[in-house]
Amino acid sequence: MANQIGTFFRSQGPDMAVAGTAEHIRKFWDPRMRQAILKHLEAGGAGLDPQVRDAVEALRPPPS
């Protein structure tokens, strides 16, 4: 699903694709879904498109 969102935003250029994908996930995904994609990224992020990977990385909370 994240890759499909990324594909939608890809036509807006790389920077907007990353920002748009991250914003969409932040606004519209249930917190459990966001946690699941972050865990998937931590486990290697297999199958994520590069710009989607960057968008998910942007969702990570800052280190404490």
From TrEMBL:
> Please, which domain of life does this record's source organism belong to?
Bacteria
Q: Which GO terms describe its molecular function?
A: formate dehydrogenase (NAD+) activity
| Keyword terms | Oxidoreductase
| InterPro entries documented for this protein | Formate_DH_dsu
Q: Pfam families from the xrefs?
A: FdsD (PF11390)
EC identifiers of the protein:
1.17.1.9
Identify this protein by name.
Answer: Formate dehydrogenase subunit delta
The organism named in the record is Rhodopseudomonas rhenobacensis
